[in-house]
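User: What would this chain look like folded?
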Amino acid sequence: MAAAGVAFAFYISVPIATAVRFQNWCDEGFHCAYLDSRLSYYGAVVAVIGIAAALIRLPSSQRVQSGLRSGACALLACLGGITYLHNAHMAADMRDYVSAWTRAANLACEPGATIPAQDEELLALIDPKGRVSRHPNFDIASYWRHYIEDRRTALSCEIPRG
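Assistant: Here's the prediction, encoded as structure tokens.
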């Protein structure tokens, strides 16, 4: 069971890790590809369960069995804590990433707010860190102008929470 879990994890992760395109994306500063490789988590969990089951079935004393169970619980608790910290970090990063839409909505909904005429000024106001990913040939300033106009003409001017 453990071998099947490890094989599944490698089957899912290795093609993505070895693809030059995804490596270039990481090198160029875009988000590294992890979307499909997250499925390898299921294989890793199966492998851990298989190893734990094999260890528990080994003939040993009650004391060793108790130690193995305690160790497995401690390991799972540590992994849960690490996962929580990682998710909290990713949530903060995502809040920063989507803050451009919040700033654009604020600009659209603020009474008397003017949209800067220069593209550079508009981009510095809405997305000062340049976090919004897009195709290199995409006119992001035009997108933000359309977004602001659409928000202004919407029936409600509710600011998204981010």
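The radius of gyration is 24 Å. If you want, I can go into more detail on any region.
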